[in-house]
Amino acid sequence: MSLGDLFETESDPQGQLIRTEPLQQRSAERLTALLDAAAAVVDEVGFDRITTAMVAERAGASIGTVYRYYPDRVAVLQALRERAIARFRMRVAEELTISEPETWWDAVDCAVTAFVTLYRSEPGFRIMHFADRERSPINNETDLVSGFFARRLAGALAEEFGLPGGVNLIFHLEVAVEMADALLSRAFYSDPQGDDRFISECRRVVHDYLVGYYGPSAH
Predict the structure, then answer these.
(1) Residues 111-141: pLDDT tens digits?
(2) How far apart are CA 122 and CA 145, in angstroms?
(3) Which domains does the chain have, with CATH numbers?
(4) Global confidence as pTM
(5) Residue 210, exposed/middle/buried by CB under 10 A (0-12, 13-18, 19+)?
């Protein structure tokens, strides 16, 4: 199994919270259009102000079409978030396959590169931070981005680069992911291309934190 295989996702990138399963091609295309519209609206007004009416108008569909698939705005946002997470996982897999990392840091850095690339190119990627657990509960802990990547990355680093596996590695990687998420979110707070200073500091902070536990990589 390659490193990239560890980050492939089995989840439906269209989201899990739809009312009607889009079995036909036309329905699948309509669902994609709705989520694409939601992504565009999120970029314009933020996920706190988005409404189903806005999504319908942007998609050129009736409000009834939106409700056919999603019961409310929260379901639309959660489905968009699931799609963003799935695309993030696929992007990490692509980065790992293309770069063929030679050290544990190269592998970790691929996740940072994937995040930066998607924030710059994927409409609505800020939805990754939509997680109102009271109104829109995450179904299980594997849907938490930091926990998912910590577990998958821990297995990869232990298998491929000989890092000591187990709960300590998972915990340290989860801390690293949370730190990276905070710094990269700040990098893109007001700049759609990202503030290179924060991106560089993200890489340095995460690298130095992990080096403190696992020693220097080849870099």
Answers:
(1) 999 999 999 999 988 887 765 433 444 444 4
(2) 17
(3) 4-214 (1.10.357.10)
(4) 0.79
(5) buried
